[in-house]
Design brief:
Blueprint: H1 3-8, H2 16-30, H3 38-54, H4 57-64, H5 82-90, E1 108-114, H6 116-121, E2 123-134, E3 150-151, E4 160-167, E5 170-177, E6 186-187, E7 200-211, E8 220-223, E9 239-245, E10 251-254, E11 257-265, H7 266-271, E12 273-279, E13 282-288, E14 297-300, E15 316-323, H8 330-342, H9 362-372
Parallel strand pairs: 1-9, 11-15
Antiparallel strand pairs: 2-7, 3-6, 4-5, 8-9, 10-11, 12-13, 14-15
Helix pairs in contact: 2-3, 2-5
Length: about 375
């Protein structure tokens, strides 16, 4: 005899746990409350009888030996209880209890734009947000005139109601959230006129945030408890401030380092010299030796961006760009020709570089491209 085992889809040597798991799975699929197919209803009846037999050690032993598993128990028919049905659908019997009116509020996200100097040195900001705040009129409990939620008369505070239904397997008891109190177990008979019983209202509030030195686009600052207040007087969620760094007119950020393009005339490049530039720390001087070339780098230590963690700062790197005059006066042209003769540079020389050769001026090219778009 194996039809009960086949009904549950288990082997004859299946353990009690295997039988229980198989029944739970099939009951969720076939129970009339979730499946209206008549064929499924018939199969559910077979599955239920099979489980009653195989889940009882004495009935199973009688069935395995070829006997009538119901003969010694006062007749056939399934005598299936509420606990088994609940166990099949919810993984365990017993009441689930009322829902709490008090819920944690939602987290919120806002974006704040900071300039390069603010990102480097940090800044404190204040801003207004519109959010869910606790209702001052009812103190967050949703009731008018200082009252409190009262126990639901229908479910007596359980938050759910039980119904007994007759079916082909006998009486089946099911539990559903109470329609009168929506599962809370209590009702608000006189809702607050300000919040309509929710315990919170929309309001604007001022938020203060300290943005640390070294932030960059995408960094988030968590302000615990500054998000939306929860319903029913529940705790507030968190507010996340996301940083958006605005561009700078002449400085390019690369991690903790800053880059700046410095144009120098060819005469200065040939003779050497210095040029004053504006940095985040005020005016600083960049010096270069005679014979300076385009793409040459001059590093100013500790004038870059602050490190977000660990302290210290990056560097400011100046990229020299030697400019060649496009128009020459007669006297200037004569002087340059004379210089070319003295240096024996009357014809250009050609040097060949591999296309995949890496150059230290790569960041300079990227910098130049960024401001020439």
């Amino acid at each position: 005899m194996s039809e009960h085992y086949e009904a549950l889809g288990v082997n004859r040597d299946a353990s009690a746990d295997d039988i229980k798991k198989a029944y739970r799975k099939l009951a969720r699929e076939l129970h009339p409350d979730v499946n209206s197919d008549p064929a499924s209803a018939e199969r559910f009846k077979l599955v239920t009888v099979a489980y009653e037999v195989l889940s009882d050690p004495k009935k199973r032993q009688s069935y395995d030996s070829g006997g009538d598993p119901f003969s010694q128990f006062g007749g056939g028919g399934a005598n299936f209880g509420f606990g088994d049905i609940m166990d099949a659908f919810f993984g365990g019997g017993g009441s689930r209890g009322p829902r709490s009116r008090m819920r944690r509020g939602e987290d919120a996200l806002i974006r704040i734009e900071v300039d390069l100097a603010e990102a480097c040195f940090g800044v404190e900001r204040e801003f207004e947000v519109e959010t869910a705040a606790s209702c001052g009129k009812c103190g967050g409990n949703g009731c008018a005139n200082g009252a409190k939620p009262t126990t639901c008369d229908i479910c007596k505070g359980r938050g759910e109601v039980q119904q007994v239904q007759r079916s082909f397997i006998g009486q089946v008891m099911t539990s559903r959230p109470c329609a009168s109190c929506q599962g809370y177990g209590s009702v608000i008979k006189e809702p607050c006129s300000e919040c309509a019983g929710d315990g919170r209202i929309r309001a604007r509030k001022t938020i203060h945030v300290k943005i640390p030195a070294g932030v960059e686009t995408g960094n988030r600052i968590q302000l615990t408890g500054q998000g939306e207040v929860g319903s029913g007087g529940g705790p507030a969620g968190d507010l996340y401030v996301e940083i958006v760094e605005s561009g700078h007119p002449y400085l390019l950020r690369d991690g903790i380092n800053l880059h700046i393009s410095v144009s120098i005339p060819m005469t200065s490049a040939a003779l050497g010299g210095a040029v004053t530039i504006e940095t985040l720390d005020g005016e600083r001087e960049i010096s270069f030796k005679a014979g300076a070339q385009s793409g040459q780098r001059v590093v100013l230590k500790d004038l870059g961006m602050s490190r977000l963690r660990g302290g210290g700062r990056g560097d400011l790197i100046g990229h020299l760009e030697v400019t060649t005059p496009t128009k020459l006066g007669k006297e200037e042209e004569a002087l340059i020709k004379k210089l070319a003769e003295l240096r024996k540079e009357n014809s250009a020389t050609v040097s060949v570089h591999r296309s995949d050769e890496k150059s230290e001026s790569g960041i300079f090219s990227r910098f130049r491209d960024a401001f020439q778009r």
